[in-house]
TrEMBL record:
Full protein name: Glycerol-3-phosphate dehydrogenase [NAD(P)+]
Keyword terms, alphabetized: Cytoplasm, Lipid biosynthesis, Lipid metabolism, NAD, NADP, Nucleotide-binding, Oxidoreductase, Phospholipid biosynthesis, Phospholipid metabolism
PANTHER family: GLYCEROL-3-PHOSPHATE DEHYDROGENASE, GLYCEROL-3-PHOSPHATE DEHYDROGENASE [NAD(+)] 2, CHLOROPLASTIC
Domain Glycerol-3-phosphate dehydrogenase NAD-dependent C-terminal: 178-316
Species of the source: Butyricicoccus pullicaecorum 1.2
Gene this protein is translated from: gpsA
Length: 338
């Protein structure tokens, strides 16, 4: 198939390699001409995916209209660029061509909607949308390390097409109809990974991190179910799976940013030092907004918001979480008042 991948950061390149390996005709787009020139010259993104060769069979371009005759389009840009890129692509991509979004987050420019909604709006509902998401660090996918991922879509045929296109002997793709759960899990695991990184940076223990991850997943699922997701999705690849990989891996930009903050760096210093997109920063603001909008209690997200956006003290945040009123583990916390 002819496939355009919008985005030549670490994830866009890793997925382009999977698609090229599977025999597809791949064009990978980057938004900057200068970056495109460098990629063409070196056949490598030395900053974001060092040591990974981009074979000649992958065409590199900065022309947005490269998807004119694409049969499948992949959006692999940071959350802050999904709406803008989708709007540009919508003017070019033919109706009916599936759009696979792999960016994680909510759309801050459109009242924090999910990206499938952003894309649906941009494409006037004419193109099926798939969220391809799960525990997948680009560094490992690019090296052919066995990986499992989820293709979630309201369109069964689009999810299955995505499964067929991406799946190979080291890249296993499952399908799901629960795109709400897949998108919410993918967006908000990054919040918990930042928090888990802070715990690591502070030198807290395994108990602290396991508690954060488990209660973090509880609050993500609580929000997701309120928005119409299936509870079981949060126990799957796009929920627990992605949470595990992001909270435990040194590949994770979110976890590493958290470690730097835990060690005393400012939020801005940490983001700069990472030098790649730290989605958890934006997702924390999105989560804070969604908790207020829906009335769902998201205490870890709220405390992290206080630290990241309001200069709150990390130790005070931990004390606030530990000192909350007594709860039953499965108590439903649908409002701030419980
Ligand atoms: N890297 C991974 O392992 C991985 C895995 C799964 C999902 N994701 C998700 O994929 C998305 C992209 O992440 P990444 O890891 O490729 O990021 P990255 O930081 O490696 O690269 C980001 C790329 O986006 C480009 N960019 C910056 N501003 C842009 C704009 N306005 N328009 C278009 N492009 C722009 C940058 O030049 C860079 O090439 C994120 O939402 C991330 O959470 C990443
Ligand atoms: O490096 P991170 O923390 O942005 O995580 C990347 C992917 O989302 C992992 O699945």
């Amino acid at each position: 198939m002819k496939i355009t991948v919008y985005g030549a950061g670490s994830w866009g390149i890793a997925l382009s390699l999977v698609l090229a390996h599977n025999g597809h005709q791949v064009t990978t787009w980057t938004h900057r001409e200068e970056q495109c020139r460098q990629l063409r010259e070196t056949r490598m993104n030395a900053k974001l995916l060092p040591g990974v060769h981009i074979p000649e069979q992958i065409a590199l371009t900065s022309e947005i209209d490269c998807a004119r005759d694409a049969e499948l389009v992949v959006l692999a840009v940071p959350s802050f660029a999904v709406a803008e890129t989708a709007e540009k692509a919508a003017a070019i991509v033919p109706a009916g061509v599936p759009i696979v979004n792999v960016g994680k987050g909510l759309d801050a420019a459109h009242d924090y909607c999910r990206f499938s909604e952003t894309i649906d709006r941009a494409f006037d509902g004419q193109n099926p949308v798939v969220a391809l998401t799960g525990p997948t660090h680009a560094e490992e996918v690019a090296r052919g390390i066995p990986t499992a991922i989820l293709a979630a879509s309201a369109s069964r045929s689009a999810a299955e097409l995505c499964q067929d296109v991406f799946m190979n002997e080291v890249f296993r793709v499952y399908t799901s109809s629960d795109i709400i759960g897949a998108e919410i899990g993918g967006a908000f695991k990054n919040v918990i990974a930042l928090a888990a990184g802070i715990a690591d940076g502070l030198g807290l223990g395994d108990n602290s991190k396991a508690g954060l991850m488990t209660r973090g997943l509880t609050e993500i699922a609580r929000l997701g179910v309120t928005l119409g997701a299936k509870q079981e999705t949060f126990a799957g690849l796009s929920g627990m799976g992605d949470l595990i990989v992001t909270c435990t891996s040194m590949h994770s930009r979110n976890r590493r940013a958290g470690i730097l903050i835990g060690k005393g760096k400012s939020v801005q210093q940490a983001m700069e030092e990472i030098g790649a997109v730290v989605e958890g920063y934006y997702a924390t603001e999105a989560g804070h907004h969604m908790a207020q909008k829906t009335g769902v209690s998201m205490p870890i997200t709220s405390e992290l918001y206080h630290v990241l956006y309001e200069g709150g003290d990390v130790h005070r945040g931990i004390a606030a979480l530990m000192g909350r009123s007594k709860k039953d583990e499965h108590e439903s916390e649908t409002t701030w008042l419980t």
